[in-house]
Design brief:
3 strands; 3 helices; 3-stranded antiparallel β-sheet; alpha+beta; globular
Amino acid sequence: ILPEVLVRIIIKPENTITLGLYKLIGFIDSAVYTLEEALRVNNNIDFIPSRPLRERFMTRLGLVLALKMNRND
């Protein structure tokens, strides 16, 4: 069993209440993402339109939060 687990979540920054709750339990800002990247990482590539992509698919607007947990705690 691995001693450490990394949990990542993707969230819209305007979702301030949820963002605040995750930060209260220890999540930290990890990265920003585009809509295209979020769809790809979640295996929803069918929702990505053919190229050229519109601006909303290529603009980094979302947040990735991360939390490292130690299984020994």
